[in-house]
Design a protein that fits this description.
Two copies of one chain form a homodimer. With 347 residues, chain A is an alpha/beta fold. Chain A has 13 helices and twelve strands. In chain A, the strands form two sheets. In chain A, strands 2-1-3-4-5-11 form a six-stranded parallel beta sheet, with helices on both faces. In chain A, β1, α5 and β2 form a beta-alpha-beta unit. Chain A is elongated, with a radius of gyration of 26 Å. The N and C termini of chain A lie far apart (53 Å). The interface between A and B is large, with 54 and 53 residues. Chain A binds a DNA duplex (16 and 16 nucleotides) through α2 and α4. Chains A, B: It comes from Streptomyces macrosporus. Chains A, B: InterPro entries: HTH_LacI (IPR000843), LacI/GalR-like_sensor (IPR046335), Lambda_DNA-bd_dom_sf (IPR010982), Peripla_BP_I (IPR028082).
Chain lengths: 347, 347
DNA sequence: GTGAAAGCGCTAACAT
DNA sequence: ATGTTAGCGCTTTCAC
């Protein structure tokens, strides 16, 4: 059995109050008693009971993170950064996966962990902002990658329209003209895909081109297989082939490159490819992948900052924050102008 | 403020005892009171306070998962599976990262979360079995991918020697003779790399070949960059080039293929490559990667089973379990015999 | 079938 | 500077 404050107090011949003070440094204790208590503490290997502490404090020190999938490269990386940012604030993270399903998102918001966490960070997929806010109780919440037009909660995201615009412009600048957009997700409610599509179209318009609906290929998920399949579809359709693709995620892009290879389409010579997320695989893929790189560390940091603000100022009436984090376009082999086959190592 | 049992009891005009019974179905309650209580429960949107429950029960319902990195493809996938297996048992998982550092492993075992979790699943990297058992307190613990010669705790792993043997034999069967092993980690204490090396050597011996120390290349980590660098080293050394590589992880293998490509070495024609872990990237890489595929779902399931056994039978004297989960060799493009350039989709 | 009350381990208000 | 104690919300023993 683990020893409690009472045990330590008995051993040191003092009251629990004093032991508590020593443990927390909350009041002044004479040097002599402190030493005696400390010794008892060590001898008994005292560890505070977190449940009791939480019960008293009304806080658990736990933060819920709700994402589609832990093992997705993008969310995995983000989760790792969030865990570390949380650690710096003495918080512990609980990760839940929704697999992009609306019912799971609902369940996780209301049910399973809602009562136990002090705050929630959620990357919504199937639910839109208004439903999110209905589902969530009074628990402070931060939305990731969600535009949230109604401003129901804090949210942290890159400027998806701008980023997609830049990616598309980059392809235009390397001389591409029939640029496909693979990644719209009509069934998705979180708005991200829409914004990327808007940015893509904006860039085309600016270049005097008219977006061709046949080049906008929707996908059911952002996984590699979905990208591979969408690319097959695009190639099988007949009509003039695209000379570039802007994929709404790196995973899609990797699937697209896989299909290109299977069909004898050379990347980047016949087809330039740009992705989104800057996952590690893209740095080592063949060819390496040009991509939009969001500042993930900053996403993690800012999200936790938002949560901290709300948790520590309970009655606060701070309006929902809308935070935009920086991104940059990382140009690699998959979009290099033909004939410029650089062999540099991954960057 | 969230409502408590007491609030509900007051509203329903019964005692807390009765409300508790309704919530937990723990004793028989008359149909009439049950209905009244249920109504009060709904009206107040009652949610049990987990901290209080834990304090009473002496359990938190939390399981700690200690892995090198969440965003590693292998551990990410495993973590996802563990989270789901835990969910099925009404447990919640807390994930911590060690980055493969000994001090972090120690800290996480003793310190931060040890007092709060009911059990610990750890994939040790820098600590060996005996130190692990010293560090951990009385908390039930399961080791992943660790041979644990001293049998200090339950552990779940594939048969690494056998798996490495099979991978090497596969390369021998496709006619390769100078097979390199990239992945030994002398600084690692968990034994995994050693076992894979042993299996590799055993296969060579069986084929009548003598392992060439120059073909065994140690690495500092199992990441892609480490693989890329090790391959560069191997090629720069001069001497006869290898015609195959057995990499101790898929990530290493992907890095190796990257270097091969940069150096104009064709895979699989000039160099066959086999990895370990069966991560998703390997299915979509170019060429797709032959690999040893551990049954990850079963690893997760069995690990939780071990924990459940110990947590629910506290005084139990069950000796530490040693569980071996199945694996299989998945042959893809990177090791196809030269001249058999199948273009089939990823499998 | 239901109520009263003790107690899990901790913190903090109140006392000395 | 330190002791005493109420009470956080819950489960459960004991009593009726």
């Amino acid at each position: 059995m683990r020893s409690s404050l009472k045990d330590v107090a008995a051993r040191a011949g003092v009251s629990v109050r004093t032991v508590s003070n020593v443990v927390n440094g909350s009041a002044s204790v004479s040097e002599k008693t402190r030493a005696r208590v400390q010794q008892a503490l060590d001898e008994l290997g005292y560890r505070p009971n977190l449940a009791a502490r939480s019960l008293r404090a009304g806080r658990t020190g736990l933060i819920g993170l709700v994402i589609p999938e832990i093992h997705s490269p993008y969310f995995g990386e983000l989760a790792g950064l969030l865990v570390e940012a949380a650690q710096r604030r003495s918080w512990t993270v609980i990760i839940d996966q929704t697999h992009g399903r609306a019912d799971e998102e609902r369940r996780l918001l209301k049910g399973t962990h809602a009562p136990i966490v002090d705050g929630l960070i959620i990357s919504p997929w199937a639910l839109d902002a208004s439903e999110l806010s209905e589902q969530a109780g009074p628990t402070p919440m931060v939305l990731l990658g969600e535009r949230d037009p109604r401003r129901v909660a804090d949210h942290v995201a890159v400027d998806n329209v701008l980023a997609a615009d830049e990616a598309t412009r980059h392809l235009l600048e390397t001389g591409r003209r029939r640029i496909a957009a693979i990644g719209p997700q009509p069934e998705l409610r979180n708005g991200t895909a829409e914004q990327r599509l808007a940015g893509y179209r904006r860039a085309l318009h600016r270049a005097g081109l008219t977006p061709d609906p046949a080049l906008e290929v929707p996908v059911p998920t952002l996984h590699r297989t979905a990208g591979a399949r969408a690319m097959e579809e695009l190639l099988d359709r007949g009509g003039p082939a695209p000379d570039a693709v802007f994929a709404f995620s790196d995973e899609l892009a990797l699937g697209i490159m896989r299909t290109a290879r299977d069909r004898g389409v050379r990347v980047p010579e016949d087809l330039a490819v740009v992705g989104f997320d800057d996952i590690e695989d893209g740095r080592f893929s063949n060819p390496s992948l040009t991509t939009v790189s969001p500042d993930k560390a900053q996403i993690a940091e800012r999200a936790l900052q938002c949560l901290a603000d709300r948790i520590y100022s309970p009655g606060g009436t701070v309006p929902p924050q809308r935070i935009t984090v920086p991104h940059r376009l990382v140009v690699r082999e998959s979009s290099r102008p033909a004939g410029n086959g650089s062999r540099s190592a991954a960057s």
